[in-house]
Amino acid sequence: MQSFWRDTVEFFPILLNGVALTIIVTIGSLLLSTVLGLLWALMRVSGIGVLSGVSASLINVIRGIPIIVLLFYLYFVMPDLGVTLSALQAAILGLGIAYSAYQAENFRAGIEAIDRGQIEAAQSIGMGWWLTMRRVVLPQAVRIALPPYGNVMIMMLKDSSQASTITVAELALQGKLIASSTFKNTSVFTLVALMYLTMSIPLILLVRHFEKRAGKR
Amino acid sequence: MIELSDVHKSFGKVEVLKGITASVEKGEVVCIVGPSGSGKSTILRCINGLESYDRGEISVEGLRVNRDAPSIVAIRTQVSMVFQRFNLFPHRTALENVVEGPLYVKQEPRAQALERGRALLAQVGLAEKADAHPPQLSGGQQQRVAIARALAMQPKAILFDEPTSALDPELVGDVLSVMRKLADDGMTMVVVTHEMGFARDVADRVLFIDGGVIVEQGPAKTVLNQPQHPRTQDFLRRVLHPL
After folding, report:
1. Interval B224-243: pLDDT, tens
2. Stretch B206-226: mean pLDDT, rounded?
């Protein structure tokens, strides 16, 4: 136990650098996946055949490819096609694209849960498609989509560790590097696990708050 | 101001409107009565483009109703609709529901829209409920907010789709009296309803619809008191004397 505290004091500052990158990757890919997911969902419900078809196939393609392969593709294959991305850029882009499929399905479920009468009421006062979405459908859909959105946040925080496979020195990779140079596997990985848990707990509480609020209505 | 000529409409293989020809003059109150599934609501929904129609022509103030054309927005801002199930926006207060169209569709100045919104809520007897959300209101109150929302567009006509059918019986009167006042003020109204008393007292004209056609029409008292067609007679007997 004593050696664990000594190791903690020694490794904690290095692992904190990893935490910073973990947070950057998580927030970056969360924002990207939210924007893309919303775009796919709106295309899907647009009522325009081409757009909804493109969106549906895109979602299926993304869902059918493992995140790790997507990351390899962006980081190792894109340079051959003349697009060179830094490891961090590739990680954010890859995770953002991968998660956009899940976000899209989540948003679509929220949008489609809105009563048809709401849309008719909006149309009957002269609102067009976009105004109906912005003022009537999306504000209500967001409330429905929030609890699952919170769960996606937690999953993304943990899946940001996959960025380690393309050399982003986030928390998991920092841990692995320290462990393999000091052989203090137990201390290091216990510390890494505790740090992920510490970051997850606020998110878990947030989801619980969302769920309580959704249950009230 | 509203003209329908030989309007046909099918849902799949079922033809619900089989050639409806009718007109509504400015300031007129027309009640549409008839059995369920006869196509009454579909007529209203076609007039403001919530449904398309297959054949014939509908026009509002000379403007052809085509739900896929940009002109539909102009028609909808002139012809408001009140729904059976109110369809208020639950995430906005009563006042916000009322001013939503003026602010975001007609781009009226905020202060002016809010002032008129409050006046309209007062007109339907709900001045003190301006900040309540729809789930906190009774059905009758929600429907009156919906009427205020329709009025806020300053429409030339209002379509009512069974406005009291979803209400508890003791709340029907509040909504009907608001509608009666509107009629007295000269609002053009087309009302699909099962309230025969309202139709008899308030409507100028009644259309009796069955099986997608207008079976009988005329002045309200004539159609409802001395119906000529056997189907109208039968329907009214059932509605007025259900036992």
Report:
1. 999 999 999 999 988 888 77
2. 92
Nearest to A106 by CA among A61, A40, A27: A40
For residue B182, the SS3 value is: helix
Asked whether B239 and B199 are in contact (CB, 8 A), the reply is no
Whether residues A123 and B76 touch (CB distance < 8 A) is answered with yes
Looking at the complex, report in whole angstroms how far the Cα of residue B91 sits from the nearest Cα belonging to chain A: 7
pLDDT in tens, B126-139: 999 999 999 999 99
B153 to chain A, any CB pair closer than 8 A? The answer is: yes
Instruction: Please give the torsion angle defined by the CA atoms of residues B30, B35, B38 and B40, in that order, rounded to the nearest 10 degrees.
Output: 30
Q: Is A89 helix (H, G, I), strand (E, B) or coil?
A: helix
Q: Which of A5-9, A151-155, B95-99, B204-208 has the lowest mean pLDDT?
A: A5-9
Nearest neighbour of A117 by CB, restricted to B73, B74, B87: B87
pLDDT surpasses 60 at A217: no
pLDDT above 70 for B67: yes
- Give the rounded distance of the alpha carbon of B83 from its chain centre: 7
Amino acid, res. B142? Q
- Which of B77, B87, B88 lies closest to A120 in CB terms? B87
Contacts of residue B189, defined as CB under 8 A and 6 or more positions apart, other chains included, come to B28, B29, B30, B157, B158, B159, B160, B179, B182, B183
ipTM: 0.91
Give backbone dihedrals phi and psi of A206, rounded to 5 degrees, phi first. -65, -45
- Nearest chain B CA: its distance from A10 CA (Å): 52
Rounded to the nearest angstrom, the gap between the alpha carbon of residue B175 and the centroid of all alpha carbons in its chain is 13
Query: Quick check: A121 and B101 CB within 8 A?
Result: no
**Spatial distance between the Cα atoms of A83 and A102, rounded to a whole number of angstroms:** 26
Is B73 close to A128, i.e. CB distance below 8 A?
A: yes
CB atoms within 10 A of CB B115: 12
B11 touches chain A (CB under 8 A): no
- Helices A185-216 and A138-159 pack at an angle, to 10 degrees, of 170
